[in-house]
Hints:
Keywords: Cell membrane, Membrane, Transmembrane, Transmembrane helix. This is VANG1 protein. InterPro entries: VANGL. Its main location: membrane. This protein is 55% helix and 8% strand. It is an alpha+beta fold. Among the domains are: 144 residues, no CATH class; 80 residues; 124 residues, no CATH class. Strands 4-3-7-6-5 form a 5-stranded antiparallel sheet, with helices on one face. The radius of gyration is 35 Å and the shape is elongated. The N terminus is likely disordered.
Amino acid sequence: MSTAMDTESTYSGYSHYSGHSKKAHRQGRDRHKSPRSKDGSRSEKSVTIQTPPAEPLLGNDASRTEEGQDDNWGETTTAITGTSEHSISQEDIARISKDLEDSVGLDCKRYLGLTVAAVLGLLVFLTPIAFILLPQILWRDDLEPCGTVCEGLFISVAFKLLILLIGTWALFFRQPKADIPRVFVFRALLLVLIFLFVFSYWLFYGVRILDSKDTNYQGIVQYAVSLVDALLFIHYLAIVLLELRQLQPMFTVKVVRSTDGESRYYSLGHLSIQRAALVVLENYYRDFPVYNPALLTASKSRAAKHMAGLKVYNVDGNNASGQSRAMIAAAARRRDSSHNELYYEEADHERRVKKRRARLVVAVEEAFTHIKRLQAEEQQKAPGEMMDPREAAQAIFPSMARALQKYLRTTRQQQYHSMESILQHLSFCITNNMTPKAFLERYLSPGPTLQYDRDRWFSKQWTLVSEEAVTSGLQDGIVFVLKCLDFSLVANVKKIPFIKLSEEFIDPKSHKFVLRLQSETSV
């Protein structure tokens, strides 16, 4: 029976998909036939993307009203139809090609930096060993015998190199989290310092030891030990500059999302602007609720409805500026009544959300009552059919699917939850013996961005916009912007003020009190 239902739903979904495809094709053909406007502006092109039924099954058309949507998601399979309007010109194509060239340049720069760092690190670790082995290879017979102290220095060099290798691996050999537009200044300075340091040691070694063929082998080994000690100190300097310096909070950054005004505050230390931007993005994906453009369409549609009700007649031949002023004046006269409409719309929306939420909670609780976890001794005695968590989730999901679909459409979250993701989450909750309230936590309130499918929120490229150089440090009053395709994050930097804390000592013996009696009291 389930196979027949699945087949029937698939045929229904594909018929729905083909109907939308034909309609979209006719609309696209009519739109291409429309002439351009008189002012020479390009007509917008409409691209309709059809998704097959195997993709997320919740409706994704946020512009339709709730009454006009299909509520048969629990019984049949529907397809998503999304419309995106863009106009593409030669300038856009040139910009896209430029972005591709920039991305290739960033990859080359990153691999070049890794190659230089790897070659320099290999040179650093091989230099002390070469200092010790070259005299043994070139003038072994002329060297003085190595005593007990010299042999002890071999052990010292070996363990110090091992410690340096582990510290270098822990500090530098990490998976890169992002590509920054400019070079990391402190890391570049450390690489230059190490190169100059090793070069000076090789220069001294070549002039004073190789040319003269020094026979004091213990002194040569001691020279190699001093090099390893200096490298350990440079590694300590790298820890201070790259890790410890930024730990103390010095600035407060307010991050505001440009579309809906969602904001957060973060405390940062001494960082450059580009590294501060990376910290902001890492915290954004964790702290900010997911960006939902469907929530912004309500205010735009309401404003368009108010402006659509205004009609301006050009009787005496006034220009377009006069018409615009007349429309603005008429909109201002209607402003007094618009707030009442907004109030009643929001009240009605809250009432519908509470109603759908109550239905969803009841449906999920009833569905979870049909699931019982079998213990190890009960699994052998159970006469009925046993199911794994995935099968159990598929069995109870139809009873809650309709209520969940209506709630997600009412709260405009349907584009972030596919049926497959809901089934996976339900299976996860059943596996870990979680309650219905724990299952609904993801859907009753918008969660952080990382909670959702990566393909639905992740922006592959961010653009950092700043009036100051991105390699310069944070300062009071600096503003930088992080832009992606749909919105931007505006960061405003404020310095934490200097706090002067004084001390006042109170003698514990000074806490003495008396009882003040009055004639009117009953004490």
